UniProtKB/TrEMBL annotation, chain B:
Protein name: ABC transporter ATP-binding protein
SUPFAM superfamilies: MOP-like (SSF50331), P-loop containing nucleoside triphosphate hydrolases (SSF52540)
Pfam family, one: ABC_tran
Gene Ontology molecular-function annotations: ABC-type transporter activity; ATP binding; ATP hydrolysis activity
PROSITE patterns assigned: ABC_TRANSPORTER_1, ABC_TRANSPORTER_2
Domain ABC transporter residue range list: 7-239
């Protein structure tokens, strides 16, 4: 049996032709923009908005961070990494956020896959309940954690009854962790469920026909196919946790996470320079995570990457 | 090949949770080494049958599936040792061509050297030797299906299952791959079930063809039997084109039909006679037993298809030599040999089939 292949060669060059026409279409679109000043005129409100509410304040913020910090005298950006209180705040926030994202992706990823694949009574209800926390602001999430693990929380009352001592975790790092996990899980579940809908079942069937059991199918087919969704939803959880303010504020955790540091530099010490430098640092880290997520979700890397 | 096995389905039906019966309980046997084609219109249950054999569906209670002497009804697909080829290729996008083909071999824990040897062997068989390192999204549709085929045969499965593997390809490539698959199946001698809705594919590939209609097997037999001795108007119509000629009356072995008469004592008492367009012969309008007028002609290259009005409800389809040209409205004479006429419910054309009557 021999190979092809005028035919297939032709279909390949057909794909190339397709790319060329796309490029041509894009060119003509730019051409339209250039030829019609009216189109540019229509962009003016958007540009104004962009400059007034984003570009100007952000430029000022960035510039402000270049100034020396009034306590240490260092350039504020440098102080972020050189001054222990800021560096620890940054590192702890990173650590908690990464930990939360990984745990959320692992647990809620499995849950989302299970929910997408199985039908049972009360499923719609369960999904609604699991995704309900999305509707809560951080303050309420913090409040819920206190209800569970605070001084008067369910756990404290329970342990008081059994062992005569109050167990609580709400005000420690664990409380923060639980709170962040709480609002990360629904995001992961919804994303993973949506991604599961798009899985190509015949890939799993092909793998099984070749002898792959559940574990191999999961490892070789499902996880690779879901990985763009898992990575992107993980990155979004990470970004959300990095910037979460309400939960941390409500819990009043001793360890000050980055958003709280910004808040207290700003309001308690009127140290605008430091607040600016911390904000920009937070913004850049979050932005990197989000653009990473967007690239994967947009499928530019695709399942084959 | 001596190692091939027969497949037996006993009373296998499939009703889905929705209450829809995709497959009535059927009995089916695929002989060892045979290629059985499941043919039928969309939604008739071909894929469901194939998936029952593969173990991707379980039959309704009472149904049993046997591979040789072994009852495999309860075995999931990964334990059945079947190779599957899908319409959409189903290649693993995160693996290159070699890794796709080697997948089943690695699961079977063959040594690296053995894996390489077997991969090379099947790549050679399907004509893919130059593509080993390619990613699967760098292949054309035809190449993808070759990889899928190689992946399925690499593990030397007991049974090969194909679900419309060529439907996504263009006509020319389809013809070519169909021939290649046919050659390969004969060479391997593996028992195979092949689903298609393309009758030409069914004829070319099947040792036997099962024509399915609404969850039932309407007829099963060799391509020749199915084509020349259809048991029902549905089968006759689904495979190839067929003319349905109304019989007005019969006398001395002659059937009175629109535009003239046909000699066929066998069909005495029937209300209709059927015949294939290529079995109608074109002759002189003055002497032929049936006369009519050409309504339309379609040039097909190797022949032409004429529509001839003989005064009946529908014009007759006639396959005529390509060279001769007819004008619209031109008179034409037709005749049909006695043994080319058939009726599903009357004794059939060829001797050995009389038992079916
Ligand atoms: N998972 C399912 N749940 C409910 N109904 C189904 C399911 N799978 C198939 N069916 C129905 O069963 C019938 C037979 O389906 P099947 O896929 O076997 O048809 P098919 O002959 O392969 O058709 P096609 O040529 O379109 O692939 C169809 O009416 C289909 O709608
Ligand atoms: Mg089908």
């Amino acid at each position: 049996m021999s190979l092809t292949s005028h035919h297939e060669a032709r279909s390949l060059s057909g794909a190339a032709a397709d790319v060329t026409t796309k490029a041509a279409r894009r060119r003509s679109y730019l051409g339209t923009l250039r030829r019609q000043p009216a189109v540019l005129l229509a962009l003016v409100p958007a540009l104004t908005f962009f400059c007034a509410f984003w570009l100007l304040p952000f430029t000022r913020l960035v510039a402000m961070g270049m100034q020396p910090d009034k306590n240490s005298g260092m350039i504020a950006y440098w102080a972020v990494v050189a001054q222990p209180q800021y560096l620890y705040s940054l590192l702890w926030t990173l650590l908690v956020s990464i930990g939360v994202s990984l745990l959320a992706v692992a647990t809620a990823g499995v849950a989302g896959f299970f929910l997408a694949r199985n039908r049972f009574r009360g499923k719609a209800m369960l999904v609604a309940m699991l995704t309900f926390p999305l509707a809560f602001p951080g303050v309420v999430v913090g409040f819920l954690v206190i209800m569970l693990g605070g001084r008067q929380g369910a756990l404290a009352q329970f342990s008081m009854l059994l062992f005569g001592e109050r167990w609580m975790f709400a005000y420690s790092l664990a409380g923060l962790f639980v709170g962040y996990l709480y609002f990360s899980i629904p995001r992961v579940i919804t994303t993973v469920m949506a991604a599961c809908e798009k899985l190509d079942v015949s890939l799993e069937e092909a793998a099984r026909s070749l002898g792959a059991g559940t574990w191999r199918v999961t490892r070789d087919v499902i996880v690779p196919a879901l990985s763009p969704a898992l990575i992107s939803t993980g990155a979004i959880c990470f970004a959300t946790s990095m910037g979460a303010f309400g939960t941390a504020f409500t819990l009043g955790t001793r360890m000050s996470v980055l958003p709280l540091s910004i808040y207290s530099e700003f309001t308690n010490y009127a140290n605008f320079t430091m607040a600016a430098a911390l904000s920009v640092t937070l913004g850049v880290i979050t932005w990197i995570a989000l653009s990473f997520a967007r690239r994967l979700a947009g499928g530019s890397l695709g399942a084959s990457a | 090949m001596s190692s091939s096995i027969a497949i037996t389905l006993k009373q296998c039906g499939r009703t889905f949770a929705s209450g829809h019966t995709a497959l009535e309980p059927i009995d089916l046997r695929v002989e060892a080494g045979e290629t059985l084609v499941l043919l039928g219109p969309s939604g008739c249950g071909k894929t469901t049958t194939l998936r029952l054999i593969g173990g991707l569906e379980t039959p309704d209670p009472g149904g049993r599936v046997w591979f040789g002497e072994r009852d495999v009804t309860a075995l999931p697909i990964e334990k059945r040792d079947v190779g599957m080829v899908f319409q959409n290729y189903a290649l693993f996008p995160n693996m290159n061509v070699t890794d796709n083909i080697a997948y089943g071999l690695r699961i079977r824990r063959l040594s690296a050297g053995e894996v390489r040897r077997r991969v090379d062997e099947v790549m050679e068989m399907v004509g893919l030797h130059d593509f080993a390192r390619r990613g699967v999204d760098e292949l054309s549709g035809g190449q993808k299906q070759r990889v899928a085929l190689a992946r399925a045969i690499a593990v030397r499965p007991k049974v090969l299952l194909f679900d419309e593997p060529l439907s996504a390809l263009d006509a020319k490539l389809r013809d070519r791959l169909r021939l290649e698959i046919g050659t390969l199946l004969r060479r391997l001698g593996t028992t195979a079930v092949y689903v298609t809705h393309d009758q030409a594919e069914a004829m070319a590939l099947g040792d036997r063809v099962a024509v399915m209609e609404r969850g039932r097997i309407a007829q099963i037999g060799s391509p020749r039997e199915i084509y020349h001795q259809p048991h029902s108007a549905f089968v006759a119509d689904f495979i190839g084109s067929v003319n349905r000629i109304a019989i007005g009356g019969t006398r001395d072995g002659w059937l009175e039909v629109d535009g003239g008469r046909l000699f066929c004592p066998r069909l005495h008492g029937a209300d209709h006679a059927y015949c294939r367009p290529e079995d109608i012969e074109v002759g002189d309008p003055a002497s032929a037993p049936i006369s009519g007028r050409v309504v339309q002609s379609f040039f097909l290259g190797q022949s032409q298809r004429l529509l001839v009005d003989t005064g009946g409800d529908a014009p007759l389809q006639v396959e005529a030599p390509a060279r001769r040209q007819w004008r619209r409205g031109e008179a034409i004479g037709l005749s049909v040999a006695s043994d080319a006429l058939f009726h599903p419910h009357h004794p059939l054309t060829f001797g050995q089939a009389a038992a079916h009557g």
